[in-house]
Amino acid sequence: MRFGGHESFAVREGWLSRGLELLCDSPALLDDEFSEDHLGVGRNMAKSVCHWLSACGLAEQSGKTDTRLSPSKFGVLVRKKDPHLLDLGTWWMLHINLVTNLEQAFSWNWFFNQWGLQRFDRAPCLEALKRHAATKLSRQPSLRTIDRDLATLLQSYARPIPAKIDDPEDSSESPFQDLGLVYYHSASGYFQLSLDPKPISSGLFGYSICKMPRSVGRSELTISELERSESGPGRCFMLRGDDIYDLLQQFEQESDRAFALRSQAGERGVKFDSRRQALDWAKAHYASMEVMQDAG
User: Fold this and answer.
1) Mind listing the pLDDT tens digit for each residue in 141-152?
2) Which pairs from 210-217 meet CB under 8 Å and 24+ separation?
3) I want to staple 66 with a disulfide (CB 3.0 to 4.6 A). Which of 62, 156, 179, 191 is the partner?
4) Where do the domains of the chain lie?
5) Is 0.90 surpassed by the pTM of this model?
């Protein structure tokens, strides 16, 4: 498990789109000794951009012994369908990729799957992450390393309340804050998770199911499993069971009929197209966005 590849920098506006552009169109520039000049950031920030490209599933190593990055199939799709990363759905999929990337985003996997307090202070959160790392990792990272990892995570997601006055010259805010998953109350110093309903497309929901370990080899899941299972929709989108059910009712009415609600022995569940892979669901999401744009 790797900590700190982000160099303590949260993803910033424009980083991934510029990095993905170089990755797909001019990979030699990203691998260049002065890649920071081509990315328009500092040297440590350039390392961070490469880390986030990989951790978010946009890039992968070229080979087992070749550490150079090349675009993943998902990265190629994003470059084609949303090159400037303007679609919030793209950020949802990047978020899902982080939550399910135990190797490069250990703290992210823990926070969204294990941390359960809806309102919390940073100190007990750090202590819980430290205990989790001690039980899961054979080589324990230093407390300072864990602290920086948690700080970067919270900086990535926590939207301040009251909101900061927007400065058009300030690009330090992370686009992950737009997902509305975590809020930071400046006056009290507390963080709060948002379990409110969220505008999730059927493609994003299916993408999340494909990344969910418990879904492997299955075509039906209960609402309870979708809500509580590791890396499932309930964890990634922070949704309650009733809100998941409401979303599935909407999806059931869509033309492709990818989801169908079921009830067995009083347990609510859903049947889905298990032949679709994560990339198929990502394509379905972008197709639905194109239909909405055409209709508008």
Assistant:
1) 999 999 999 999
2) 210/276, 210/277, 210/278, 210/281, 211/96, 211/97, 211/99, 211/100, 211/236, 211/278, 215/274, 217/274
3) 62
4) 15-193, 202-295
5) yes
